[in-house]
Hints:
CATH 2.40.240.20; 2 domains; alpha/beta; elongated; 31% helix; Alpha/beta knot; 12 strands; 7-stranded parallel beta sheet; 5-stranded mixed beta sheet
Amino acid sequence: MTRRLFAGDLEPTTGLLTLEGDELHHIRNVLRARPGTIVELFNGRGLRVQAEIVDLGRRSASLAIQGEPSLSPTPFPWTLAVALPKGDRANWLVEKCTELDVGRLAPLATSRAVVTATANKQDRLRRGVIEACKQCGRDWLMEIDEPRALGDLFSLTVAESNAGWLLDPEGVEISSIGDSRPSVVAVGPEGGWSDEELAAADEHGWKRVRIARHVLRIETAALAAASWISAGQF
């Protein structure tokens, strides 16, 4: 397995780079690397490059870039807006969405949501994105957006001239939609959408989409949608 490290300061012209904090901890305690170890760096904005650890101190590590960086293709630019599930299920959701090339994940505030996306929780989710990118080989970080209300999403789709999807067990079957891909997909809370939220989605021209025959948990519905859209990229 390739040993990968996140280097947000990596640029095409970088020759020598210093890593501290979480990445230094990863070098020491996860990779158990030593000077001379070759690793792969990525900056979360598409660049990746090989580097050699040339110095490993108590507070920082120095790495020498080896060769020319490569630029990975950008993911399809879409937003998955989710009423976050409780506890570790949200962390697992972020990991899998990262693997499936979701462009942006937005915590969704709805009338029946039970989880609030605090600043600390958003920071934990962003760290989870970095760890997932290390594992799966993704070079573009999935963005963790600020919490959004459903009304905010309507304005996004108007700006992009692309109808959004509202996942709904009573909606049209996803197989009947064809090859079109939305710019925004909204996944509601376990208590479901309110009548007002459904009416607002209809008013703004969104499609209510049924993605499976049965009622799905939040993370299952989100990943089913992500898999469908991701498959259209290849």
